[in-house]
Hints:
The chain has about 425 residues and is an alpha/beta fold. The protein has 2 domains: about 5-175, Creatine Amidinohydrolase, Chain A, domain 1 (3-Layer(aba) Sandwich), CATH 3.40.350; about 175-410, Creatine Amidinohydrolase (Alpha-Beta Complex). It is built from 11 helices and 15 strands. The protein has helices spanning about 5-10, 20-40, 50-55, 95-100, 120-130, 145-160, 170-175, 180-205, 210-225, 285-305, 310-325; strands at about 45, 75-80, 85-90, 105-110, 135-140, 165, 235, 260-265, 270-280, 330-335, 350-355, 370-375, 385-395, 400, 410. The strands form 3 sheets. It has a 6-stranded mixed β-sheet with strand order 4-3-2-1-5-6, sandwiched between helices. Strands 11-10-12-13-14 form a 5-stranded antiparallel β-sheet, sandwiched between helices. The longest helix is centred in the middle third of the chain and has 24 residues, at about 180-205. About 45% of the residues are buried. The model has no long low-confidence stretch (mean pLDDT about 95).
Amino acid sequence: MKANFAAALRQAPRHKELPFPEEEFRGRLARVRAAMAKAKLDLLFLTSPEAIYYLTGFQCEWYQAQSGRAFPATSGVAVHVDHDQHIHFETPSEAILTAIGTVSRDVRIFPMEMRRNGLAFILGELEAEGWLRGTAGLELYNYRPNPVIAEQYREGFAGAGMTVADGTDIVRGVRHIKSPMEMTCFAEAARIADIGMAAARDAIQPGVTELEVFGEFVAAMARAGGEFPGILPPVMSGFRSNCLHPLATRKAIERGDRVNVDLCGVYNRYHCNIARGFWVGEPPEAAARMHEESIKAFDIIEGMLAPGLNVREMLEAVRDHYTAAGILDEAYWSGGYELGIAFPPDWVGAFIYDLTMTGEGEVFRPMTVVNHECNFHAPDSLGMSATIDTFFFHEDRAEFACKTPRELQVLFA
């Protein structure tokens, strides 16, 4: 990578493609630094794709997350509590992409002789800046980098004289509260999710495979401007609908099958989750009744939904309905989790709620987004009633994100 690479790198800034204006990123960095100060962290080194994207706009297809040992994941972003610019460290392979797709002003590319492992370069640059003093926060609960490389990071910062602490929750905590621009992205993701579910419905018919249904709704969402989600969206038919997380396969859908589809619309990496159930032919009465009772929870939630809603109060109201309906014991899961920026392999956010883990005083805060899942095993091995919706909590109101009906949709009756 010499003359031609250098020429392309010089031209790259003319081709900027930022998902948000620079002032949005400046506000994010300021909130992260404030959280660092509160946690008494001097330096925060970020390695998760979500955190890097949140502060810089950088996104790519490959993060060396599960690659061979010759490709350790050492790139990342350094944030100092006293500096209003972060330092973005990247491999030469991603130098052009970094110039195109990030707001980063201080980008330091690994030297070619260190292109496979930039840790020594990162530590040297931070030492020269005087940033290796005090306490360093690392994303210890993140999958990237793997445990071996994470330990090398810990040893490197500790060897420089720093105290090493867990900084995972700094950016995750800041990301929990969304900006108005982020909420606009969620609204677009919801529109895309409804388009995807409509395409799934139209594709389901006897003889069509689960993979064909998968392909149709992914293509429809892409045509609508949607991006690939953080989890491979499952399609579950027939007996496989007794599971919630199977990958779509070459199994052909048959008359008499339940078909469940769980997908996310994605816009600027912001996810909106929806799951719906279909039946090819007339559904058995027991399965239809289970589904009808399970989705009544959303009517209860709609009457309560508001920013500041106590999480346990909502969950208890839903539980009381399930108890009265006689289906509580068949619950696979009744709860939900935060949605937001996500990259493969996951879209499940840091805030998770159900009656086994939610404290008395927890509330749904304004400017947050969560999903809610009503998943129940039907009798006679007739599959799972799987219904998921996303809620938007704005400053002054709350709403359901998607418009696709929750009723069991009967096809080819």
